[in-house]
Design goal:
Length: about 290
């Protein structure tokens, strides 16, 4: 880490204007990245480090954080700088002292997430650049049709990735049958593009020192607001106060539970791609409900 350590020190001094940098310390945050906290005369900075080929991933994450911040709803860490040096790339961002959610912060999270989903977007689905969900590519080519965008760029992409990398042709066949039937759950529903966090599980949100909610590690794009509930409901961790506050602003539409089959399948497929076959039974269980 010597070369990358020096590069981060240099950026903090030359690009961010710190005159004193000390104490490289590890952070428990991070499954797919190495994470560190740098202390400076301008405060602390949170730094993610990964391979040199991950620079585009960090650039996309920074763009996503900026888009979320521009909604003026939920707090996100401010991205400051990203670069590659030697065999590594890194992203420097604002350090926020994170704490466990309280009932109050969960309630505020639900209310502000709903307000974020209601911020007027570009009128189409996708995003200005491709990004990643974990380290898996997310294709965000603009599309006027939400169902077409989701089935092609989310479900089909993950299914074909599994076929290509692990040879799972069975799940591809079942997935194609699922896709044929899934669009029926959108009949009569008007889907308006919302800016989504994209990967909002309980590990990607906390409270700050003032008890206000924070979200981070996004996989941002414009999509159906219900899609943010795919992973949110999958792994739990969100209180009744959260759900009630959200539903006061955006009530649940008929067919919500059926549409969640696809939204949850996307994240199960991605976990299968990222972490292996232990997630395959969960994928097959959802696919079997329609096929």
């Amino acid at each position: 880490m010597d070369v990358i350590d020096q590069a981060i020190h240099r950026v903090l001094i030359e690009k961010i204007g710190c005159s004193h940098v000390q104490n490289l310390t590890g952070s428990p945050h991070g499954v797919l990245n190495q994470c560190f906290i740098f202390e400076t005369d301008k405060g602390k900075f949170f730094v993610k480090v990964n391979g040199k080929n991950d620079l585009a991933m960090y650039e996309a994450e920074a763009n996503g954080l900026k888009s979320l911040k521009e909604t003026h709803t939920l707090r996100v860490p401010v991205p400051h700088y990203w670069a590659a040096e030697g065999d590594h790339s890194f992203l420097i961002m604002e350090y926020i002292q994170l704490k466990h959610h309280t009932p109050s912060s969960q309630q505020t999270l639900g209310r502000l997430l709903a307000k974020m989903h209601l911020v007027k977007g570009p009128g189409k689905f996708g995003y200005e650049i491709d990004n990643t969900i974990g380290t898996t590519p997310q294709i965000n080519t603009w599309n006027d049709n939400w169902v077409e965008f989701f089935l092609t760029n989310r479900l089909e992409f993950q299914l074909r990735l599994l076929e290509r990398t692990v040879g799972d042709t069975e799940i591809l066949r079942k997935g194609e049958k699922f896709i044929e039937q899934y669009s029926a759950f959108f009949e009569g529903l008007e889907v308006v593009p919302s800016l989504l966090h994209g990967d909002l599980w309980s590990g990607n949100t906390a409270a700050d020192e003032q008890g206000e909610p924070v979200i981070y590690d996004p996989a941002v794009y414009y999509g159906h607001h219900e899609a943010d509930f795919g992973i949110l409901l999958l792994f739990g961790g969100f209180s009744q106060e959260f759900h009630e506050a959200y539903r006061e602003i955006i009530p649940m539409a008929p067919g919500f539970e059926e549409r969640q089959l696809g939204y949850q399948l996307y994240h199960y497929l991605n976990h299968y791609n990222l972490f292996g076959s232990s997630y395959r039974p969960s994928c097959m269980q959802i696919l079997s409900r329609l096929t």
